[in-house]
Amino acid sequence: MFYDHQQIEKKWQKYWEENQTYKTSNNTDKPKFYVLDMFPYPSGAGLHVGHPLGYIASDIYARYKRHQGFNVLHPVGYDSFGLPAEQYAIQTGQHPAVTTEQNINRYEEQLKKIGFSFDWSREVRTSDASYYKWTQWIFIQLYHSWYNKNTDKAESIDSLIQHFEEKGTEGLSANQNDELNFTAEEWKNASDLDKEDILLNYRLSYRAETTVNWCPALGTVLANDEVKDGKSERGGFPVFQKKMMQWSMRISAYSERLLQGLNTLDWPQPLKDSQEYWIGKSQGAQVQFKVEGHDETVEVFTTRPDTIFGATFMVLAPENPLVETITTDAQKVEVDTYIEETSKKTERDRMSDVKNVSGAFTGSYAVNPFSNEKMPIYISDYVLMGYGTGAVMAVPAHDERDHRFAKKFNLEIKKVVETEEDVQEKSFDSKDSVCVNSDFLNGLHYNEAKAKMISEIETKGIGHGTTNYRQRDAIFSRQRYWGEPVPIYYKDGMPYTLPTSALPLELPEVEKYLPTEDGDPPLGNAKEFAWDEANQKVVATELIDDKIIFPLELSTMPGWAGSSWYFLRYMDPNDEETFVKKELADYWGQVDLYIGGSEHATGHLLYSRFWNMFLKDRGYISHDEPFQKLINQGMILGMSAFVYRIDGTNQYVSKNLAKDYQTQQIHVDISLLKGTSDELDTEAFKAWRPDYAEAEFILEEGKCITDREVEKMSKSKYNVVNPDDICEEYGADGLRLYEMFLGPLEQSKPWNTQGLSGVYGFLKKFWNLYFNGDVFEVSEEEPTKAEYKVLHTLIKKVVYDIENFSFNTSVSSFMIAVNELQKIKCNKRNILEPLAVIISPYAPHICEELWSLLGNGTSIEFEKFPVLNEDYLVEDEIEYPVSVNGKMKFKISLSAQLSAKEVEDLVISNEKMQQILEGKTPKKIIVVPHRIVNIVI
């Protein structure tokens, strides 16, 4: 019977939509299972075949769990705020909302074509005001919270105010920007404005001067992961370090909990390692060094206080505020020039550049508090303001980076840890030796020396032992248009949150999406964007009088704001009263399976863990962590095509002749190749772009052969394969099976369209099992043991594979089972009906159609998954190979139920064995049950 995949797939996609087959109920006695894909950003290019890989895997798992009787939440939505739509708006004037809507419609059409079992009724979009109302609400909760170290959680700012009223800062242990000290009396006497200023020092969302990655061309601040090699990832524009007043999130308060929480998660180890490194916990001491001729001190954090006698110079971060104070007139030009150069590098670039040594001398000296020796103070880009104190005591004998710096600037290198190595030539970084040249530390090992030195530092009153974290607070404002407005207005220069009743603060219309002429963010162009405090509403900007009408915050939230809590909104997507009802958050709990790319390790995955922990602290949800199990899918790679252009000409030479010329490799669109070959369609190439219209070709055997290479699939490499084309030719079920068949989910693998024909051939064979010619024919006869064995072998393998995410080996098992059933001409209902259920998570359309043809009136989706019966896998007879003195002589079929002694007796009495023995008695008989018999004579 002809397998008409197009008709079948359209029919069932229509059926699922009309019947809302995948709509999830919150009211059920079933156990829950929450399967989620990382939030897609709807780009203008639409999906290519690499994008659905993770979605197909999660969809198989979601369908399998439904078959197992779980209430499965498998939602979809769009992370729809983002820079690409804004850049397009700047270039064309088209509102980002229009672009985003078009892109989402394209994505949705493509996703539905692939047959995903999403609950579309729960779809959310971060750019919808009904959604970002709650993103703004969470921001307000963070603003009105502080982190109490004594209770180790976030609490309402009211409890902090109460503490101040009763005790001032006495007994306070809080995460803060600066350590403040005041009495209850001083707090009570402070003005309202001063009180607000003090509270900003503790709030979990706060405004402060911060060093940021500023991109003038994009007119916005960028996150570290949006910058590559000193340029913006989007557009490749120069990025500079700049100090600006910015909103930040106090994620640093959660560093220890984020670190410890990793132990409870079933995540890939490399991803956990990335977060651990990013958080960067280290234990050591905070120490103050006096600066000669100044009242200021330089405070450093060091993990090696045991080496303080070897500290011969100091290095400050170029942006350290002390630099301006202590730099001498003679060194000012050199220092200023160096600071200007450093501003062009991002923190990430500075951290990763370990080879280049640079710096400038400030002209000032610190005094080593233990050796009393003068230490020249330098600035260098390898010291970061955001880690520790923005200053280091340099011990060149025992730190590789300090050593390179000392060699470059000809500074003293002093050995303080015993080693045979010449520390003048190479640093010795080990902790396994003893202290030397270190006065009262001499002869002590690392742990003893560290403890003794910390005790001495505390006795001298110049510091204390401490734990430090590399992780900085997350910058939360962006100077761009297409993002969530920050629900803040300014009164007397102080920020105040809008009342929650005024939410959402909607994104206003603007005439242009660029910063204003005064350098304000794009929201500064809005005509209706001021806050009427008395009437609690947004009014015309021209009415601002700073008495009753106040300016609103002009920055918007970063791209990660909406994606930091979306997994919670899916539980209760249409609730207008709260972001998620507590009982629904308690029912759905954690995401049980989260699939997405590893590139989000230190961005989205950290921020969402932080917001989740905060919401739990404040009692809105009950679970600590958002994502229990996480899988990073690999990439599907494209097979790029190249032509060779002869330098300085418009001539193109075929691949195998290119070695005879000076050539340049140029990407060409893979759609310009003939069929599935490597031959370029030269006429199509000439018509592709105007600059190729006059192209000439040097051919081999009348053909222009392209070179091929496996690369990341991307529009810029012209190697993108559109899933729509694959669905058209091979069907969505063919695409789903092939993407799984390509290899293990976590690995990257190259796409090859030719490989689809094998999977498509399997689907046709599977379809034809149910037909006799063109007639649907299924027998009610009881299957044989052999037929049951094929089925139950498959059940055992597929259950194991799905539960271990080995989807590629399941597809192989389907092929084997269908081949075996075809060979034995099996068309029995008791085999073919469960077979359709087993294959349906992978190929749902064909299985729905067969299920319907089998006479079932409901969807296959909620049918119980076939249960394994091991009895069918037990062999009735075993064919034993019989070896004599290590050589196989004959085989004998015996009952599988026989004991080893019974097998031995039957083999010895066998006629062939009697002939071999010739009356001798065997020296040794070894029976391996169900495997082999060995006889030694």
Structure description:
The chain has 937 residues and is α+β, with helices and mostly antiparallel strands. The protein contains 28 helices and 36 strands. The strands form 10 sheets. Strands 10, 11, 12, 13, 14, 15 and 16 form a 7-stranded mixed sheet that branches. Strands 25, 26, 27, 28, 29 and 30 form a 6-stranded mixed sheet that branches. Strands 2-1-23-24 form a 4-stranded parallel sheet, covered by helices on one side. Helix 21 packs across helix 22. The mean pLDDT is 94.
Straight-line N-to-C gap:
61 Å
Question: Which segments are poorly predicted (pLDDT under 50) over 5 or more consecutive residues?
Answer: none
Which term fits the overall shape? Answer: globular
The major beta sheet can be summarized as: 7 strands, mixed
Determine Rg (CA atoms, Å). 35 Å
Question: Could you name the key traits of this structure?
Answer:
single chain, about 950 residues, alpha+beta, seven-stranded mixed sheet, six-stranded mixed sheet, about 20% strand, globular
Produce the secondary structure layout:
Blueprint: H1 5-19, E1 32-37, H2 52-67, E2 71-73, H3 83-92, H4 96-113, H5 129-143, E3 145-148, E4 153-156, H6 157-167, H7 184-189, H8 192-200, E5 205-215, E6 220-222, E7 227-228, E8 231-232, E9 240-249, H9 255-261, H10 269-279, E10 281-291, E11 297-302, E12 313-316, H11 322-326, H12 332-342, H13 347-352, E13 360-367, E14 374-379, E15 391-394, H14 400-409, H15 446-460, E16 463-469, E17 474-475, E18 488-491, E19 494-497, E20 530-532, E21 537-539, E22 549-551, H16 566-569, H17 582-588, E23 593-596, H18 604-617, E24 630-632, E25 636-646, E26 651-653, E27 663-668, H19 682-688, E28 696-698, E29 707-712, H20 723-730, H21 732-741, E30 749-750, H22 756-768, E31 771-772, E32 775-776, H23 785-803, H24 807-823, H25 829-839, H26 844-853, E33 877-884, E34 887-895, H27 900-909, H28 911-917, E35 924-928, E36 932-936
Parallel strand pairs: 1-2, 1-23, 12-14, 23-24, 25-30, 26-28, 33-36
Antiparallel strand pairs: 3-4, 5-6, 5-9, 7-8, 9-17, 10-11, 10-13, 10-16, 12-15, 13-14, 18-19, 20-21, 20-22, 25-26, 25-27, 25-29, 31-32, 33-34, 35-36
